[in-house]
Amino acid sequence: MTVMAERTTSHMLVEEFEEIASAAPETVTLEFLDGRIEEKRVPDGDHDEIIRWLQERCMQHRPDLWLYPAGRGLKVETYRQGRARPDGVLASKGHFAGDGEWSDPDGVLMVVEVTSYDGDTDRRDRQDKPAAYAAAGIPVYLLVDREAGVVAVHTTPDAARGCYLDIHRAPFGEEVTLADPVGITLDTEILKNYVG
């Protein structure tokens, strides 16, 4: 079988994706999940406010850590062949110093996604991303689901199966605890202001 025939029956190679992503204009954010290129929607103002709020909470309760906002690329999925740009990445301050565009997820304590109001949200944020982050062994995946009005805290990643074993969903307004190694409790009442 030739290389060309192999590509028509299989997914794109990660090296091909990285080449495409590096040539994309700054106004386009691309991810590579399950062998497919995904375009990530530009966040709206409420989305940005949620990330700002989370940054403040992390700084208040864990000043040793930093919630890196959207843009930090992570190598995810089985054998790290996926590429994702979470809305937030919680790690030690200075953790990504010296890294290029795509970092290994080792040392990442939590990733955050805030849903957008588009047709791909269900598959991307509720299915593909948790599977990719669990496969990479990231301890906590926090999904702020604006459409459903809930915060979903995914913990106990099973890298071999590509899933989180524990998922706690709480409606906006309830307190949620981000398990160790994060160790922060969030009062989510303010999130009611950013749904619309």
Proportion of helical residues? 25-40%
Task: Outline the biggest β-sheet.
Answer: 6 strands, mixed
Structural class by sheet pairing and helices: alpha+beta
Mean pLDDT level: 84
Annotation, overall tally of beta strands:
13
CATH superfamily grouping:
tt1808, chain A
SSE topology string: HHEEHEEEEEEHEEEEE
Summarize the structure.
The protein has 4 helices and 13 strands. With 196 residues, the protein is an alpha+beta fold. The protein has a single domain (44-194), classed as tt1808, chain A, CATH 3.90.1570.
Describe this structure in words.
The longest helix has 17 residues, at 45-61. The protein has helices at 3-9, 14-23, 45-61, 121-135, and strands at 29-33, 36-40, 65-69, 73-76, 82-84, 88-92, 102-103, 110-114, 140-145, 150-158, 163-171, 175-178, 184-187. It is 25% helix and 34% strand. A hairpin with a 4-residue loop joins strand 10 (150-158) and strand 11 (163-171). The chain has a single domain, classed as Alpha-Beta Complex (tt1808, chain A), CATH 3.90.1570. The chain contains four helices and 13 strands. Residues 1-10 have low confidence and may be disordered. The protein is an alpha+beta fold and 196 residues long. It has a six-stranded mixed beta sheet.
